[in-house]
Design goal:
five-stranded mixed beta sheet; six-stranded mixed beta sheet; 26 strands; alpha+beta
């Protein structure tokens, strides 16, 4: 379907023009005898005039046409109508426009070629309604650009997939009627993004294009558009400058932010180095202090080694199941052969059982009391391994004994027993004597042997009644019961009497 042809005597004739472009009428070539001598402008094969059902006039090839691009295209009536709209709008915009202009070397053919009156620019207006790939449309655009011809592609389809791949526009007619207008492709730059603008008529858009007021631009900033992301858009040069300024400012901000981040990182690293140096100094001082405390503990151990009071206290503790398990734990988990120390009532052990290696050096403390972890006890225990009967006792010690700011950073704690029932039943027999001021071992009264003992105990300074029982109660694991008759401690099972 072609809109122009060659007449043997009149030259080039145009089917869409009332005078055919040569001062003749359509009736002089359509349905006349003899037939008008018309030929294809490209392949020179005979053509004949026809009218479509919608009244569009065109020239069709006679049977047996050669491999002609115009005959091969099979252009639709809608395609021809869009080409006529483009031709009319280009002329209304003040350009010289021609239909179906072919390149000198035949590498491309423009649907409508619009030129400046002085020949300073040429723009190919391409109507594209049939499917085409992005690579193909880019290649056709590049072939025209090589000949100094800019291209703009037009479609009136709702979603042309190639829109925005090359300089392109989607056109449409308003619902209320009127001239063909631009629907998609024209944008402007706001503060930090591209926005769509009110669509102009096709003639106005082409007038702006021909005058250089809008140009094709490959945007770098996001497009605030709900339909699709168009890579190549049409916009005014001032908006391109605004986008470039925005990107430069954004780059400056990113550079400044990177410099600021680097400065903060250097500051953090310097602070970390100072902190590590301080920690190393503190660790060194702590090690000196703890070594001094270990030496003092060893001296205190030697001072009481073999004494009668220390021997009695040690003999009572050595046979406890908790102590045996703690010693076994040290041997299995740490490879240390430990024994129970002699200075059990020394306050530096915080009421716990000291465990020493064969050289007499303290290696661990079993069940220290959180309330007694202060002074020398704090300094010594901070560098030792602390062992506990169960997780509950260990966690309670960790929570309360090392409150800020006294809590050591390298304290090690481990639980060696998990059988709470066994702990309660044996804790009374393994009780470590509390430290008493004065340096004298108090006189120990014999255990109660009365057949009908009258038992009592003191809780927070108040006297409570008790009675013999068949098994140890929870209170017997925490407090001592005594007999009123003999004054001796009652070591057999008992329970409180609530009054």
């Amino acid at each position: 379907m072609a809109l122009k042809a060659l007449h043997a005597r009149w030259g080039v004739v145009f089917a869409h023009l009332p005078d055919l472009g040569c001062g003749r009428s359509w009736e002089q070539v359509h349905s006349v005898q003899p037939r008008a001598p018309l030929a294809c402008d490209e392949c020179r094969h005979p053509v004949h005039p026809k009218v479509s059902p919608r009244g569009v006039r065109f020239f069709a090839h006679d049977p047996g046409a050669p491999d002609c691009e115009i005959a091969r295209d099979g252009e639709s009536e809608a395609h021809h109508l869009l080409k006529l709209e483009l031709l009319s709008a280009a002329r209304d915009a003040g350009a010289h426009a021609e239909l179906e202009v072919r390149a000198p070397d035949g590498s491309w053919r423009a649907d409508v070629l619009a030129c400046a009156p002085d020949g300073s620019w040429r723009v190919a207006l391409e109507a594209q309604l049939s499917p085409i790939t992005n690579d193909e449309i880019r290649a056709r655009t590049e072939r025209m650009r090589e000949h100094g011809v800019a291209a703009c592609w037009f479609s009136d389809r709702p979603k042309p997939p190639w829109l925005g791949t090359v300089p392109s526009v989607r056109v449409g007619r308003p619902e209320e009627g009127g001239p063909l207008g631009m629907v998609e492709g024209l944008v402007r730059f706001g503060r930090w993004s591209w926005d769509v603008v009110a669509p102009p008529t096709l003639a106005d858009f082409l007038r702006w294009v021909f005058a250089g007021r809008v140009v094709a631009h490959e945007r770098q900033v996001r497009l605030e558009y709900e339909l699709r992301e168009l890579k190549v858009v049409w916009t005014a040069p001032a908006y391109i400058t605004a986008e470039r300024a925005y990107l430069e400012e954004l780059q400056r901000e990113r550079t400044a932010q990177a410099v600021e981040d680097a400065a903060r990182q250097r500051k953090r690293e310097a602070s970390q180095r100072r902190l590590e140096a301080r920690r190393a100094q503190v660790r060194e001082l702590n090690e000196v202090s703890r070594e001094r405390q270990r030496f003092q503990a060893m001296k205190a151990e030697d001072a009481v080694r073999g004494t009668a009071a220390a021997a009695r206290a040690r003999e009572k503790v050595v046979g406890c199941p908790q102590v045996a398990r703690a010693i076994a734990h040290l041997a299995q988990a740490h490879g240390v052969a430990a024994t129970v120390g002699w200075s059990l009532d020394d306050p530096r052990w915080a009421g716990g059982v000291p465990l020493l290696d064969p050289e007499g050096v303290p290696v661990a403390v079993l069940n220290p009391k959180r309330a007694l972890t202060r002074g020398q006890a704090y300094l010594l225990l901070a560098g030792l391994l602390l062992l506990f009967d169960d997780d509950f006792t260990m966690k309670r010690f960790q929570r309360w004994a090392y409150g800020s700011p006294k809590r050591p950073k390298d304290q090690r704690t481990e639980a060696v027993l998990a059988d709470a029932e066994e702990n309660r039943s044996t804790r009374a027999a393994c009780r470590v004597p509390r430290h008493r001021t004065g340096g004298q071992e108090p006189e120990q009264k014999p255990a109660c042997g009365c057949e009908q003992p009258q038992l009592f105990l003191r809780i927070d300074g108040r006297e409570q009644s008790a009675e013999p029982a068949t098994s140890f109660s929870p209170s017997s694991a925490l407090f001592h019961a005594h007999c009123r008759r003999c004054g001796g401690r009652y070591d057999r099972p008992w329970r409180r009497v609530l009054t």
